[in-house]
Design a protein that fits this description.
globular, 9-stranded mixed β-sheet, 17-stranded antiparallel β-sheet
Length: about 675
């Protein structure tokens, strides 16, 4: 599910010092006849069977023809259960309904052999009744004892990739399902498990451009070992999903990882050019979904109450200094959270006197930089459809340089929690529009936070098969006359001129009452990726007076240019899967042209089919510190111009091994 092994995340952090690079997988445009001939010749030179190369080339030509998913033949038909039939979710596909359902078993390799037949067969079946959608996966394996399943922990079967901000499989054999319930070629639900039945779920937005693994859906999964591999049963209530009434076909895809072989299989979108599991527009179709339950209001109500009693001794008389009595002071509070579906796909979240006591704790971070730390949102109220409110520049190796809206500005301050008096958010899809509306009021605090109102309006309009044009406005102001209201807004876009080329960008402006705070920001980024090479470039500017007080800005008065190049070879000898050359460059100035940072790095990477890898790299640059800062009470970095450089070696063993490790050797030049 990703171009790069784990250890390259560390490598590129060191090489780029925070370059916001984004790598997506997209298809290359080729002529039909010329591409066919070139594919056969390249296959012969590389030692790959010509039929395999032609199959991959034909898939790329079909992808580049601009056809929609509806024109594809890949379909899995879901079967409705009879009135007297029921599924026992135990991981065993021995119910009569599973045996009667028609399976699909046409998964193909993305790695190591693009388009090659899977080394182990996978069968996928789908059933549904009036409340639940069921999937049965039979992962055949002729070496059942070699199936790797170590994790039992939730959300650990996949792991985040710092390289792409997306996902990659962790160290186990696993299967994953992708559901595009609106069939909009952009957004989806992701469900995954391993042979232990560990759960993983997430929301995918804009073809994987945004990804929310902190979302928690209500669903069940069970898995078990069998004599011929392992099986898994997914039970996903329709109430967990959002879908339009009357639609009988959804976008659908299946992925499987055979970890000991490092073999990645996909039902659809297995091409290296323009493929990948998170490319929602390249999925197949789940059909036969007739007479689904109408979503109605689908209301969830979560009230809470808190009570406390404080006891202490108090003076009863100033004359009797030591005479005291017991004083008891009761206290309490309560609140309410409501979730309702206003119409199919349009969700209302409302809250009164919000309690965030059950929120998962943030990961510990140590800040050795002059910029603020960035923590992901984990509060349930903000999680569903959170990707709708994404507007700005992503951060691949550090905090994002610019986000017009950052929900952790609400209810959280540097000195502690801020009470939320109440608010509401409406998110979802209406036709070809994606909308997000939010308004929340926070209370004043004893540490100086005033009562504030936060308002956000977001609109995105579908363009083409998987792009969009959007606009967003945020507003933060105190409810009293004190303070300076801040309003920021802008337009953004993500367009796919071809299936191989993605163009993104935004233009934003802020206005603040009083002196200062009226500035602008912009970004333009292009990304072309294929199996052989990739090129990414962007320019980003944030003005000195840009203020987005409902958002997150790493630094102002910056103009940034950066680029990334990748060249991949597949030599097919000595068990080597890929040899790759990476080139990374960065140049930052102030808005007046004063140089701030520059970096240039190169890396040579070898990956074996077994999962082992070796990377050597070198990086040289300069960094200007224009304002001294402290990294501890006793260490201060003074103003100055500093030379930076790194040379290093990274050696990693396969994650399929019982004990895996990475060795990192680095020499710094400062």
């Amino acid at each position: 599910m990703q171009h790069f092994p784990n250890k390259l995340r560390l490598l590129l952090v060191l090489m780029t010092a925070g370059i916001p690079i984004r790598l997506t997988r997209s298809a290359a445009v080729r002529g039909a006849h010329a591409g066919f001939c070139a594919g056969v010749i390249a296959a012969a030179l590389a030692g790959v069977p010509a039929s395999q190369s032609v199959l991959a080339q034909s898939a790329r030509q079909a992808a580049d023809s601009g056809g929609s998913r509806d024109s594809r033949a890949a379909e899995l038909r879901a079967t409705r259960l009879g009135a007297n039939q029921a599924i026992r979710v135990d991981g065993r596909l021995d119910d009569a309904a599973w045996r009667a359902a028609q399976p699909s078993s046409e998964l193909r390799q993305r790695e190591p052999g693009e388009g090659a037949e899977a080394s182990e067969r996978t069968e996928v079946r789908a059933l549904f009744d009036g409340t639940t959608l069921y999937f049965g996966i039979h992962a055949f394996d002729r070496e059942r004892e070699a199936v790797i399943a170590r994790s039992l922990q939730r959300d650990k079967v996949m792991e985040m990739s710092m390289m792409e901000g997306g996902l990659q499989y962790a160290g186990d054999d696993a299967v994953a399902l992708l559901l595009d319930t609106f069939d909009d070629n952009r957004n989806g639900f992701l469900f995954e498990t391993n042979a232990n039945g560990a759960e993983f779920d997430a929301l995918v937005t804009d073809e994987g451009r945004e990804f929310n693994r902190d979302w928690r859906g209500l669903w069940r999964v069970a898995a078990t070992r069998t004599y011929d591999g392992w099986t898994a049963e997914f039970a996903i209530p329709f109430s967990t999903l959002r879908y339009p009434d009357g639609q009988t076909s959804w976008g659908f895809n299946v992925s499987r990882m055979i970890r000991r072989k490092n073999e990645e299989l996909l039902w659809q979108s297995w091409e290296r050019d323009g493929g990948g599991f998170l490319r929602v527009s390249r999925a197949g179709a789940l059909t036969g979904l007739t007479d689904l339950p109408r979503t109605g209001r689908n209301v969830e109500v979560k009230p809470y109450t808190l009570g406390a009693v404080d006891q202490g001794r108090a003076d009863v008389s100033q004359l009797a200094l030591y005479a005291r009595e017991i004083r008891t002071i009761p206290s309490g509070s309560g609140g309410l959270d409501v979730k309702a579906e206003l119409r199919p796909g349009l969700v209302l979240d409302a809250t009164v006197n919000t309690d965030f006591a059950q929120v998962e704790a943030d990961d510990q971070q140590v800040n050795l930089t002059r910029f603020s730390l960035f923590f992901p949102e984990k509060r349930e109220f903000f999680l569903e459809n959170a990707g709708i409110f994404q507007f700005g520049a992503p951060g691949s190796f550090g905090p994002p340089p610019f986000q017009l809206f950052f929900s952790r500005r609400i209810g959280i301050a540097s000195d502690g929690a801020v009470p939320v008096l109440g608010g509401a958010r409406v998110t979802g899809r209406v036709g070809k529009q994606t909308i997000g509306l939010l308004n929340i009021v926070t209370d004043s605090t004893s540490f100086g936070e005033p009562r504030r109102n936060f308002g956000v309006a977001r609109l995105k309009r579908d363009v083409g098969n998987s792009g969009y044009l959007g606009a967003m406005v945020t507003d933060r102001r105190n409810t009293s006359s004190q303070g300076t209201p801040n309003t920021a807004g802008g337009v953004d876009w993500s367009l796919w001129p071809t299936r191989s080329l993605n163009v993104q960008g935004f233009a934003a402006r802020s206005t603040t009452l009083g002196t200062g705070g009226d500035g602008g920001a912009y970004r333009l980024a292009t990304d072309y990726q294929s199996g052989r090479f990739g090129v990414t470039a962007q320019t980003l500017g944030i003005g000195r007076d840009m203020r987005a007080r409902s958002g997150f800005i790493t630094r102002t008065d910056i103009r940034q240019y950066d680029g990334f190049g990748r060249l991949t070879f597949r030599p097919r000898h000595l068990g080597i899967r890929t040899r790759q050359i990476f080139l990374v460059g960065l140049y930052n100035t102030s808005m007046r042209g004063l140089r701030m940072n520059q970096n240039l790095g190169i890396a040579l990477d070898h990956n074996w089919n077994s999962g082992e890898s070796i990377t050597v790299f070198t990086n040289r640059g300069r960094s200007r510190v224009d304002e001294e800062f402290e990294i501890s009470d006793s260490v201060t970095v003074p103003i100055g111009d500093y030379a930076t450089g790194d040379d290093g070696l990274i050696v990693s063993t396969s994650p399929a091994r019982r004990v895996s490790a990475s060795t990192f050797i680095q020499r710094q030049q400062n």
